[in-house]
Write a structure and sequence with these properties.
It is a single chain. The chain has helices at about 5-30, 40-70. By secondary structure, the chain is mainly α. Helix 1 (about 5-30) packs across helix 2 (about 40-70).
Length: about 80
């Protein structure tokens, strides 16, 4: 098992992986359609997106958590 201290890093890894995969797929389909060779184009697009998404989530997630905690009532 992975130690709990890596939970935020692991969360960011999987969130950025899945979100960039989904968004790049939608953007690629919207741009070029379902053509022959779509998977190669999409995977290249996804990789470029994920390279940006992973560090972005590492930076944006803590900011978002603070914003949400300020906008919500504590028990």
């Amino acid at each position: 098992m992975i130690p709990a201290r890596y939970a935020n890093l692991l969360f960011s890894f999987f969130l950025s992986l899945m979100m960039s995969c989904l968004v790049s797929c939608i953007a690629t389909v919207s741009t070029i359609g379902l053509i022959d060779g779509f998977h190669e184009v999409w995977l290249r697009s996804w990789l470029h997106s994920w390279i940006i998404a992973f560090p972005a989530v590492l930076i944006i997630a803590p900011i978002t958590r603070k914003l949400v905690s300020k906008l919500t009532a504590s028990p």
